[in-house]
Amino acid sequence: MSVWDPWHGCHKKSAGCLNCYMFRRDAMYDKDSNIVIKTKDYNLGIKKYRDGSYYIPSGDTVYTCMTSDFFIEEADSWRNEIWKMIKFRKDVNFVIITKRIERFEECAPDDWNEGYDNVTIICTVENQNMADERLPAFLMLPIKHREIIHEPMLENIEIEKYLKSGLIECVTCGGESGENARPCNYDWVLNTRKQCIEHKVPFYFKQTGAKFIKNNKLYTIKRYKQIEQAQKANINVF
């Protein structure tokens, strides 16, 4: 079953996506990953220890719903309460990664206006078709902090015309993990990096993925090495 966990906490840029792992684990135990459930730590955003300190410390960055999607339809009845907690915890930065950017306006809280200062929305763009479908709408939305992520990156993607807007704060690239992962080509990653440099947009290479092509050679990379190998490339730009 898919876990809708709005408080998947991690420090910025340190965690890998858990979606593929979650689906593989469910398959092992004959569970249906299409069934969405809410976690028991639903109120973690405002939960405190006995000494009065918050479980999620001030200044932390929380990546929401790393094994699901914050804007998934099945979570519509739960989301408003989470928005209230996010607004209350102004001392915490919340990152929402979504492939459902078309649902943003109907899912945003009533008092969103031009956006919350402590919320970054990241639009996933895995290929050129999705870039041209999602990004024009993404740039038109009332959001204070926007980023793009190519993960899984499935082909070369031209986003220069979207970077020209000056509204994108960072672009992340990453390959696909799992036994049936599709290849990610290093040339695609470098081309996105080049576009970011030209428009002075920070760039981050997150992970190689399980199948990584470099200099026309296909490498199979174990999961625990994928982030490490990306960091060794030393191509991040901030």
Give the helix/strand layout.
Elements: E1 2-4, H1 19-28, E2 36-38, E3 61-64, H2 76-88, E4 93-98, H3 104-107, E5 119-124, H4 128-140, E6 145-150, H5 160-163, E7 168-174, E8 184-185, H6 186-198, E9 203-207, E10 211-214, E11 217-220, H7 223-232
Parallel strand pairs: 1-2, 3-4, 4-5, 5-6, 6-7, 7-9, 8-10
Antiparallel strand pairs: 10-11
Put the structure in a nutshell.
With 238 residues, the protein is of the alpha/beta class. It is built from seven helices and eleven strands.
Physical arrangement of strands within the biggest beta sheet: 3-4-5-6-7-9
In one word, what is the shape? globular
Mean pLDDT: 88
Helicity range: 25-40%
Strand content: 15-25%
Q: Write down how many β-strands occur, each being a DSSP E stretch of 2 or more residues.
A: 11
Order of helices and strands: EHEEHEHEHEHEEHEEEH
Structural classification = alpha/beta
The main sheet comes to: 6 strands, parallel
Uncertain stretches? 9-29
- What's the alpha carbon Rg, rounded to whole Å? 18 Å
User: Count of helical segments?
Assistant: 7
Terminal CA distance: 37 Å
Overview of the molecule:
By secondary structure, the chain is an alpha/beta fold. Helices cover 28% and strands 21% of the residues. It contains 7 helices and 11 strands. Strands 3-4-5-6-7-9 form a 6-stranded parallel beta sheet. The chain has a 3-stranded mixed beta sheet with strand order 8-10-11. Helix 1 links the parallel strand 1 and strand 2. The protein is globular, with a radius of gyration of 18 Å. The termini are far apart.
